[in-house]
Amino acid sequence: MDELLLESDQVSGPNDWSSDGRLLLFRNIDPKTGMDLWVLPVSGEKKPFPFLKTPFEEREGQFSPDGKWIAYQSNESGRFEIYVQPFPGPGGKFQVSANGGTQWRWNKNGKEIFYVSLDSKMMAVLVKLPPDGRSLETGTPAALFPVRLAGGPLPGPYKQQYDVSADGQRFLVNLAAADGAASPINIIYNWKPKAVK
Question: What is the pTM of this model?
Answer without folding.
Answer: 0.80
